[in-house]
Specification:
By secondary structure, the protein is α+β, with helices and mostly antiparallel strands. It has one domain: Regulatory factor, effector binding domain (Multidrug-efflux Transporter 1 Regulator Bmrr, Chain A, Alpha-Beta Barrel). Strands 1, 2, 3, 4, 5, 6, 7, 8 and 9 form a nine-stranded antiparallel sheet that branches. The longest helix is centred in the C-terminal third of the chain and has 15 residues. Helices cover about 15% and strands about 40% of the residues.
């Protein structure tokens, strides 16, 4: 597993948010709801690109047992937020980008490889309290050749 390393400026995501946990994963239902309303997000930057932003809020344990997740789209203008949706600014950072290939059923295994194996063995450490998944034209629900990216903010140890 070898990531690409890139720098990315801050960007704004608008979408639906939920609170989830490792024991009670409600994220698939959130995506179902998001897919029904995403066409109503004004000023979206890319039609076929969505983001799944996983982040800790104040009071959340660093272990990430409970966390927030926003399924959304990048927007160029941060106003006109549709009712029931939220806005999140993803800060500028250097990122390690990992590809997850295949079904979403194995996504947890990819995260496990990133955080339990690759990151501890690398010269980098995670920074901040979020990471995100990027779903673009390569993502194909339930297909073995599906690809999504996991973006982890990093810096030198």
């Amino acid at each position: 597993m070898k990531p690409r390393l890139v720098s990315r400026e801050a960007f704004t995501v608008v979408g639906l948010k939920c609170r989830s946990s490792k024991q009670n994963n409600v994220i698939p239902r959130l995506w179902d709801g998001f897919n029904e309303v995403c066409a109503g997000i004004p000023h979206s930057v890319k039609d076929r690109t969505a983001y799944g932003v996983c982040y800790l809020e104040e009071g959340d344990a660093p272990s990430g047992d409970r966390f927030s997740y926003l399924a959304g789209m990048e927007v160029s203008i941060a106003n006109d937020i549709p009712p029931g949706m939220e806005l999140l600014v993803v800060p500028a950072n250097d990122y390690a980008i990992f590809e997850h290939r295949g079904a979403l059923d194995n996504l947890c295994q990819t995260y496990e490889l990133v955080y339990s194996e690759w990151l501890p063995a690398s010269a980098l450490e995670r920074v901040g309290n979020l990471d995100f998944e990027l779903y673009d034209w390569r993502f194909r629900w339930g297909q073995p050749d599906s690809v999504l990216e996991i973006w982890v903010p990093v810096r030198q140890k």
